[in-house]
Specification:
The complex is a heterodimer. Chain A is built from 3 helices and 2 strands. By secondary structure, chain A is an alpha+beta fold. Chain A has a two-stranded antiparallel ribbon with strand order 1-2. In chain A, strand 1 and strand 2 form a beta hairpin. By secondary structure, chain B is of the alpha/beta class. Chain B is 43% helix and 16% strand. In chain B, strand 3 and strand 4 form a beta hairpin. Classes of the chains: A alpha+beta, B alpha/beta. At the A-B interface, helix 1 of A face helix 7 and helix 10 of B.
């Protein structure tokens, strides 16, 4: 450290502030993962009323961008037995 | 009908119990009927900070389980006529605090008191969620330090989703109580400033409590700091915060910021 280093104060608070802002922006966005779980269950329940679906064959994903969020739902509907037999 | 306030933070050791006791005693000194309720089952401490640890006969779990009536479990403060304490149970069984039991007790307390101040345990488990469940208003206690700010952010998210108010689509009123603040260290850039914490958490400020020896001294003797030494810096800050809770407009002052030249020199040496 140079002699001038003794006089120059490096403050740590701005770093704390910046780290927190980055971390919390990320954490607040990922809280949405709860939402995906809820959506998945409710969407599945609605579809199951009309067609038989396998719970494992439903994919719900949420992509969050700075400007838009995209909700993707992929449901695999098995062929009815009658058709399978034919 | 009384107003239910939860004092919460997520992180432990930031001053929830100290603040519950201090705000409770400050409001009671305005002649309002106040009950402070400890939700920290298994690790109760509000009784100790209030100086009532030897007078606890029945606790909240006794009332929930029907072993005692609510008035039997309420401990009246020796110094303030209108201040009461409902202690937490020291049982290890955290499940003894049931949602139905808590709802019934809070409902009854609201009939008799102007303020019901719920001291939340640290963490985000059952005790913490039950403490905030029926709140009309939340006091988020935060230290100007990264881990405390992060945990407060998490708790704010829970207040907006896991409380009755939130579930009914109403807005939960949240206030920031910044504790253990050291204006000199913040000025030097070694501690997050008030504005930094407000910017990050973006909830309104209820008060700034300075780091002070008087807080420890008060808990040593078993008195809320607003009773032990009403003229100390932290006590005055808590009195201001209590006035704001009661709806008064009180300008915010940053405690300990105005220092003379001598204070600055000695303040730096001491830190």
């Amino acid at each position: 450290m140079s002699i001038f280093g003794l006089f120059r104060r490096t403050s740590s608070a701005p770093m704390a502030r910046e780290r927190l802002q980055v971390l919390l922006a990320h954490e607040r966005a990922s809280i949405g993962s709860d939402l995906v779980a809820i959506l998945r269950e409710e969407i599945l329940a609605v579809i199951a009323k009309h067609v038989q679906v396998d719970a494992d064959r439903v994919q719900v994903t949420m992509d969050r961008d700075e400007h838009v969020s995209i909700l993707e739902i992929e449901v695999e509907i098995p062929l009815p037995n009658a058709m399978k037999a034919a | 009908m009384g107003k239910v306030i939860v004092v919460t933070s997520g992180k432990g050791g930031v001053g929830k119990t100290t603040s519950t006791a201090a705000l409770g005693a400050a409001l009671a000194q305005r002649n309002e009927k106040v009950v402070v309720v400890d939700f920290d089952v298994g690790l109760r401490n509000l009784d100790l900070v209030m100086g009532a640890e030897r007078r606890v006969v029945y606790d909240m779990v006794n009332v929930i389980q029907g072993d005692a009536k609510l008035p039997q479990a309420l401990i009246r403060d020796k110094r303030l006529e209108t201040l009461f304490l409902l202690a937490a149970s020291q049982t290890r069984d955290k499940d003894s605090l049931t949602p139905e039991g808590v709802e019934r007790i809070i409902g009854e307390l609201k009939k008799y008191f102007d303020w019901i101040i719920c001291d939340s345990p640290a963490g985000i488990e059952r005790g913490a969620t039950l403490a905030m469940r029926h709140a009309d208003m939340a006091v988020v206690v935060t230290n100007p330090e990264v881990s405390s700010v992060r945990d407060s952010d998490r708790i704010i998210g829970m207040l907006d989703s896991k409380t009755l108010k939130a579930e009914n689509g109403e807005r939960m009123e949240k206030h920031l109580l910044l504790t253990r603040y050291d204006a000199n260290r913040a000025e030097r850039g070694d501690m997050l400033k008030v504005e930094d914490v407000l910017d990050i958490l973006s909830i309104p400020l209820l008060g700034i409590i300075p780091e002070s020896m008087d807080v420890l001294k008060a808990s040593n003797v078993g008195a809320p700091v607003t009773l032990a030494d009403a003229r100390s810096a932290p006590a005055m800050a808590y009195f201001d915060a209590a006035r704001r809770l009661a709806g008064e407009t009180v300008p915010i002052v940053i405690p300990g910021e105005k220092r003379g030249l001598l204070g600055k020199i000695f303040g730096r040496k001491a830190a």
